[in-house]
Amino acid sequence: MNRPVGLVGGRESEAAATNPGGAAPTTRRGTELLMLAFAAVIMTGALVLVDANQEQELTLAIVWYGLAYLGIFAAAHLAVRRWAPYADPLILPCVALLNGIGLVMIYRIDLALAERATQVGRDFTGVAPRQVMWTVLALALFLAVLMVIKDHRTLTRYSYTAGLIGLVLLALPAVLPSAISEVNGAKVWIKFGLFSIQPGEFAKILLLIFFASFLVAKRDLFTVAGKRVLGVELPRARDLGPIIIAAGVCLGIFVLQKDLGPALLFFGVVLMLLYVATERFIWVAVGLSMFGAGCLLAYTLFTHVEQRVANWIDPLETYDEPGGGYQVAQALFGLGTGGVMGTGLGAGRPETVPEANTDFILAGIGEELGFIGLAAVLMVYLILGMRGMRGALAVRDTFGKLLGGGLAFALVMQVFVVAGGVTKLIPMTGITSPFLSYGGSSLLANYILVALLLRISDAARRPQPQARQRPQQQQPPIAEAHTVMVQAPSAGGGVGESDLPPAPPPPPPNGSGPATYPGPGSDGAPAPGPATPSNRGGHSGAANGTSNGPGADSAGGTDHGNGTEGESKA
Amino acid sequence: MNTPLRRVGLTMLAMVVLLLANATYIQVVKAEDYRDDSRNQRQLLYEYSRERGQIVSQFGGTILAQSSKTNDRLQFLREYRNGPMYAPITGYYSWRYGSAGIERAKNDILTGEDARLFVRKLSDIITGRDPRGGHVQVTIDPTVQQAAYEAMTSRGFTGSVVALKPDTGEILGMVSTPSYDPNKLASHDGNKQEQAWASWNCDTSAPNCNHNNPMRNRAIQETYPPGSTFKLVVTAAALEDGATADTPVESASNVVLPGTNNITLENFAGATCPGSTLKDALAYSCNTAFAKLADELGAQKLRSTAKQFGIGMDDLSIPLDVEESHLGPLDSSAVLYQSGIGQRDVRLTPLQDAMLAATIANDGIAMKPQLVKELLAPDLSTLEEFDPEELTGERALSSENADVLRDMMIASEANTSGEGKRSDLTIASKTGTAEHGNDPKNTPPHAWYTAFAPAEDPQVAVAVIVESGGDRGLAATGGTVAAAIGRLTIDAALGEG
């Protein structure tokens, strides 16, 4: 509203330019396959190094492992080729590389732990084979998601269901008795005899789906300005409800699960979604102050939080205390010993750090591959996040933008929380490194996340085959339907502005937006605009229209669902 | 909504940049601190993977510690022959508890990390031989060490014996009892290490904890009130101040501490001193004489002589770090009175006490005590040989005065009881019976004996301390408890044990 229109408009068109809307886009599957092969070479090389340094017998088996790994990801590649041909070509290779490095590290730590076990005469079974099994399962799930969800907008139909299941999954370990939910002091598990899962990992995605579609439907609510204080428009008090609920839930989970990691992640992602949906930074400010207050409260109320903070400030000081800084200190020792170049894969002592193959796997990588290796891994995460974000920027529907952006942000945020904890940037919280850490739940959930990112990036780049798309293509810079809406009456004066909700003069006749622009008969029909001729109604209509744009043929039902939701709530 | 998305993208970028900056700080700037932290066992584990050098004696090449090949991942097991006997010298080498003693002080040589071994290491890598560590040859004489250790342990004494070669400072023997077996800490079995460590380091107030700090190297890490052995320093200071053997001194059975309300300082058993010269005072260890003498000399003179003996040196390393021996604050006459007889706040390590005798034996020049004779490359070629070094570069007392003091000590030895006297050997000695604790009169005293022999051509200087009266309780004296051990040690050093 207050922003210079031209600037935003310019950026929007830039975004559209990167989006290959007009010219027939290449699928770039070849690039993906090449990069996957590259990842396989790195993974095989890493395996050779580990075996050489650990004085294991070097056999041809390693080549087979490498080929098997390549085979598994080639299958994933073929699935992408078949079901998401226009998906971003770098996402899958990044994931494959991280997963491969993770497998090698887990195998490497297995060797060390087995050695230790032999020394004290205990039995030890490595977990690497299990992680391989989880990888295969995760890839199967990945394929299933790509196959079943042909259009990400279908998900909006199940948003409330997703939200409910997500909340239940999230809260379940907290309310279950400790005996079946507590591991190492954190109540984030559900143990089923042979294996255990961390439902929070799945809840992460389900809640993201819920929040994204909820915000698409309701974002006007959050953009109504309240009082102006010191030049800052504060949100109306009653609109604070959802964020207070989110904060409360996070705090509750945190207290009950004795684990800050998941709560921090959720809250961060909710804030991010709220900010993107409303474009109002005040939400972030409000959320951060709530977070700060919550942290302060937790610090004064709970000794284990106090301990964590003490461990963070100086882990060497609290080294010998029970629950003290031993673990973080050992991670720092490992990182320091690794230095810039690292000790070499298989030549360090990553197993010295407790939880070396889960939460602290980055410490092992930093030790054996050095700062260079750690930085490389972080960069791969960043590339992964940025490619996801790119898909979100380019995709044409609001829900896709929110979901894609949220998933990409959640991934990087999770990396920040765990890597920051390991390297003593922030207090340590129990959370896994996506794709690297040992753990089925984390792997399965993150593969779902990636499948969704691929789906969104596919939607973003997929050319519109229908003839009725042509008119849209003749206006190349326009990526969003609402842009069209405003453009029509005001002759290009406010490109992109219509997305900012309480545009004072009720824009064009609400019905005209959806009706003139995408024009797919079935989609235009439920146009909720006319039904609710208020600003809000107009906007949910606009949002709705937005999602109609791309892939209209496959997503008719989606829009119905979305539309009706918007209507009923308006 | 692309603008906020872009901003979120920038935030993601910023988060990763922050992580990278922090990782740089941890892995580049602070890397060395973390790498060298004593609790970081990675370096130690790395060291285990190659053959660690031996610790051998300069006499007959007796092996104190060596590494032998094993079948497990740690590859080499550290073995200590006569572990408890040599533990104060070798220290231990444990992957769980770090290291101590020569194992710690000369770690670079033993692992082969030392810069002087670099070329050899390189050629080892090229020729495909496993890199090995260098060896450390220590000055210890196994005969002396064994005699002293067995003399202490057979009597069940807690304490320490130190034997020095007066003209070079070489440490011939360094015993601390009770001792511990470093083999247990070198075990590759973590549980064994843990049990051993716990049994030697538990909180002594806890039930089931029954030990007497066996891992403390009493010879250099513990300071004790030296009692009458400190009279050697006071006498040296007096002689340097112009006194002679015949200078008359106080001989009363007790003196009142100046500035106090009738608090007296008595001679041993409340006796009057049998003589009234300085020589008699030392020979009979008359407290009143030395109390007054110390006060007359004053803090400054006392300190400057003590300094030349090595007292007050806070950076002595042999190359194991030696606790500082000190006089305490000599801030009043009363304090000087008590300090003059080696009580109050005067504290010496057993090594320092041996250095008193060694300095007098070496014509008044203190030599820097040394435990390492030679550093050897893996192929036994010499890397570095240690030369005798004067401790401070200044005499503690003149050669003539040293002779005078020696004669006084011979007279003192004549008045000293205890077993092991020989008619064919002249020993110059001084005993000490040091009170300590909160209730000194009812706490068994520490028994001291410091001596050198043969008096006419000193080959060895020893100091013995037996904590808390040994087997004699309150009746213990330096002569009755410690002297016999000192004489046995001297005999062993002179090759007649």
Strand coverage percent of chain A: under 5%
Q: Specify the overall morphology of chain B.
A: globular
**Low-confidence stretches of chain A at least 5 residues in length (pLDDT < 50)?**
1-22, 467-570
CATH architecture of the domain at 226-371 and 390-493 in chain B: 3-Layer(aba) Sandwich
Radius of gyration of chain A, CA atoms, in whole angstroms: 25 Å
How many β-strands of chain A, per DSSP? Answer: 4
CATH class of the domain at 226-371 and 390-493 in chain B: Alpha Beta
Explain what the structure shows.
Chain B: This is Peptidoglycan D,D-transpeptidase FtsI family protein. Chain B: Pfam families: PBP_dimer_2, Transpeptidase. Chain B: It comes from Haloechinothrix salitolerans. The complex is a heterodimer of chains A (570) and B (497). Chain A is globular. Chain A is 64% helix and 3% strand. Chain A is mostly helical and 570 residues long. In chain A, the strands form 2 sheets. Chain A has a two-stranded antiparallel ribbon. In chain A, strands 3-4 form a two-stranded antiparallel sheet. In chain B, strand 7 and strand 8 form a beta hairpin. Chain B has a domain at 226-371 and 390-493: DD-peptidase/beta-lactamase superfamily (Beta-lactamase). Chain B has helices at 2-29, 31-36, 42-48, 83-90, 101-105, 107-111, 118-127, 142-154, 182-186, 190-201, 218-221, 231-240, 278-283, 287-309, 333-340, 350-361, 399-414, 478-493; strands spanning 55-57, 63-69, 76-80, 93-94, 98-99, 135-138, 159-164, 171-177, 254-256, 264-266, 372-376, 382-385, 428-434, 446-453, 460-466. With 497 residues, chain B is an alpha+beta fold. Chain B contains 18 helices and 15 strands. At the A-B interface, helix 1, helix 4, helix 10, helix 13 and helix 15 of A face helix 1, helix 2 and helix 3 of B.
Please outline what is shown here.
With 570 residues, chain A is mainly alpha-helical. Chain A contains 23 helices and 4 strands. In chain A, strand 3 and strand 4 (232-235) form a beta hairpin.
